[in-house]
């Protein structure tokens, strides 16, 4: 079966497309014929290599996917032919964190395509517990576009920041998958949203998704439009950090899930204790929230954005497109 994989770290040229033996579902597992997979920044980090991450080659990238169940292992109840969304993370399911619904803190937490084989393949095998039924009105494209981005954004906006109606929420990097989700989720909960980007096309898109104020952070000072915000949703990191700290109102909360501009940020701790700020880290989220997210998408209250679809054979071009940062929404891989 066709799959995209790497056998070494490096630039997009290390991505190879070739044939691998079809994976066979074991007990409690199902095989999914993948229709679409989507790219996340995680794919690029893994392709380039992360400290401490040891892969067994060939390594298939990709976290998100949608498709049709094609074969089932012993002890499963899913029917062959079921249209499904594959939840992109695995955890032990039995430890304290898993039982509390905070499984991204599980010692055995794994994201597909990072610690284990991913979804950039015609056929994948996953635990049956990772399947969610794809509603008929949700397309396979949208089903593959939203899981990782929306679960990550939901965790930041709803679970960690507890955004409420009337609060002012600043979302950086408006064109990314997580930020486009965060803008929509914050608006759904009644917040006033200020969105930043260095690209006017992405700011136009942010307005369409409901942002009340948009700021081009290359040509304008976002701090002038974002005074005394309750919540900041950030993955830009270093270049905005000191300004972010100053924009927060007393008791405000900054949630970070990344540092695309650099991680070596400087924090004036006097702001943190005198103004009682909360600086909170976030990675992925909880599958407990997935049914709520899926329901809001089915009802049209959240609309995952697809930028462009590439065939599997052109996955290197898809990675380059993502690295060019020109995309507005998610990049899909068609299988
Ligand atoms: Zn666990």
Protein model, in words:
- The longest helix has 14 residues, at 147-160.
- The chain is α/β, with parallel strands linked by helices and 335 residues long.
- It has helices at 41-48, 96-100, 140-145, 147-160, 177-188, 200-208, 222-225, 238-247, 269-274, 290-298, 315-323, and strands spanning 2-6, 15-19, 29-38, 59-60, 64-72, 83-86, 89-90, 110-111, 123-127, 131-133, 168-171, 192-197, 213-216, 229-234, 248-256, 278-281, 306-311, 330-334.
- The strands form four sheets. Strands 3, 5, 6, 9, 10, 17 and 18 form a seven-stranded mixed beta sheet that branches. Strands 13-12-11-14-15-16 form a six-stranded parallel beta sheet.
- It has eleven helices and 18 strands.
- Strand 12, helix 6 (200-208) and strand 13 (213-216) form a beta-alpha-beta unit.
- Bound molecules: zinc ion.
Which secondary structure elements does this structure contain, and how are they paired or packed?
Elements: E1 2-6, E2 15-19, E3 29-38, H1 41-48, E4 59-60, E5 64-72, E6 83-86, E7 89-90, H2 96-100, E8 110-111, E9 123-127, E10 131-133, H3 140-145, H4 147-160, E11 168-171, H5 177-188, E12 192-197, H6 200-208, E13 213-216, H7 222-225, E14 229-234, H8 238-247, E15 248-256, H9 269-274, E16 278-281, H10 290-298, E17 306-311, H11 315-323, E18 330-334
Parallel strand pairs: 11-12, 11-14, 12-13, 14-15, 15-16, 17-18
Antiparallel strand pairs: 1-2, 1-4, 3-5, 3-9, 3-18, 5-6, 6-10, 7-8
Helix pairs in contact: 4-5
Bound molecules: zinc ion.
The site of zinc ion has 8 residues, from α2.
């Amino acid at each position: 079966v066709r799959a995209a994989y790497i056998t070494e770290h490096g630039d997009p040229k290390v991505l190879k497309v070739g044939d691998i033996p079809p994976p066979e579902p074991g007990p409690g597992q199902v095989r999914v014929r993948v229709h679409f997979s989507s790219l996340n920044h995680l794919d690029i980090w893994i392709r380039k290599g992360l400290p401490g991450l040891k892969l067994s080659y060939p390594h298939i990238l990709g976290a998100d996917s949608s498709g049709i169940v094609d074969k089932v292992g012993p002890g499963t109840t899913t029917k062959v032919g079921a249209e499904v969304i594959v939840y992109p993370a695995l955890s032990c399911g039995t430890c304290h964190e898993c039982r509390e619904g905070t499984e991204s803190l599980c010692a055995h937490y794994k994201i597909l395509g990072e610690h284990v084989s991913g979804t950039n393949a015609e056929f994948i095998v996953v635990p049956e517990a990772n399947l969610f039924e794809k509603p008929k009105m949700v397309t396979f494209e949208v089903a593959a576009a939203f899981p990782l981005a929306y679960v990550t954004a939901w965790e930041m906006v709803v679970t960690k920041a507890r955004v409420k109606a009337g609060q002012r929420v600043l979302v950086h990097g408006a064109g990314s998958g997580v930020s486009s989700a965060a803008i929509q989720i914050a608006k759904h909960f009644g917040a006033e949203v200020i969105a930043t980007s260095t690209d006017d096309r992405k700011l136009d898109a942010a307005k369409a998704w409901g942002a009340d104020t948009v700021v081009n952070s290359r040509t304008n000072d976002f701090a002038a439009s974002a005074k005394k915000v309750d919540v900041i949703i950030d993955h830009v990191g270093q270049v905005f950090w000191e300004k972010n700290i100053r924009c927060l109102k007393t008791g405000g909360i900054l949630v970070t899930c990344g540092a695309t501009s650099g991680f070596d940020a400087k924090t004036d701790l006097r702001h943190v204790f005198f103004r009682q700020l909360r600086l909170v880290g976030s990675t992925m989220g909880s599958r407990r929230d997935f049914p709520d997210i899926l329901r809001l998408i089915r009802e049209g209250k959240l609309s995952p954005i697809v930028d462009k679809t590439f065939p599997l054979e052109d996955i290197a071009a898809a990675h380059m497109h993502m690295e060019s940062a020109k995309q507005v929404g998610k990049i899909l891989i068609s299988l």
